[in-house]
Amino acid sequence: MKNILDAIVNISIIEDLTINEITFGNNRANNMGEGLESFIKDAFTNTFLEDDKNIRLKKYNEVFSYQGSKNNPPDLMLKNGDALEIKKVESLTTDLQLNSSYPKAKLFSNSTLINNHCKKSEEWTEKDFIYTIGHIPKGTNKLSSLWFVYGSIYAADENCYISVKNSLTEGLEKKPDINFSETNEIGRVNFVDPLKITNLRVRGMWLLQPPYKVFKHIHNYSNDGKFQCFLLIPEDKYYKLPKDSRDRIEGLTIISIEDVKVENPNNPADLINIKFITYKQT
Q1: How do residues 200-218 score in pLDDT, each as one tens digit?
Q2: CA within 13 Å, CB half, 208
Q3: Which residues of 184-215 are buried (b: 16+ CB within 10 A; e: fewer)?
Q4: From the centroid of its chain, how far is CA 83?
Q5: Sign of torsion, CA 5 7 13 18?
Q6: Rounded to two decimals, what is the model's pTM?
Q7: By the 8 A CB rule, do 113 and 103 touch?
């Protein structure tokens, strides 16, 4: 079973950090995002240098149970492992756009936000969730930094977000002059005009502060570095990963592992022990 530690080790071995644009479509930003997703797949399967597409696809199939869709989370699921949401940013300080999908500490198979292909991709009920943020400065195709942050130290329990959505929905439902329909979004207002031919979708646009800001008190990001990779993983999760993966990453002097504490997203007065793992190319 491949895991996040294997991916970090594989990334530390390569020299070429070029993110190739995917050649379909006209939107460069989206195409570069697709290229970042391919980079992450290669990190878990160690296929950076594999030119044979058939071999790469076979390895992807061996490692991933689900490879995502544009409109539903997650972007990737490891077989019997974690789920990943991948975001490309051009600035380290830009908020992550989650659209109608609120932040997630975990991914659940009964979520209304995921599709049936994801639900049925393997036997599962709950997965740890990794936010994966790749910083590709505007006008370049070079990966400047890569952040892996486990949702359990980044997002509150889902009730925190659902309660806000429900409050907004209930407010619309109580309006006597509004024909309201409930959806997976905030809601839908029907028949807005006298001809009853106009409807209004009320959507949420969830924005999440980037890890560069949220964890500024623990990271030592260098503006002069060629490439920097950070992993923030709960200590208990770290010790649940295979020992051979832990031994391998702990044996590399180019990778640093620190014990630090971060605030619990559900109760900032409570501190969570995490492993802060860093790899840098200078």
Answers
A1: 888 888 999 999 999 999 9
A2: 27
A3: eebbbbeeeeeeeeeeeeeebebebebbbebb
A4: 8
A5: negative
A6: 0.90
A7: no
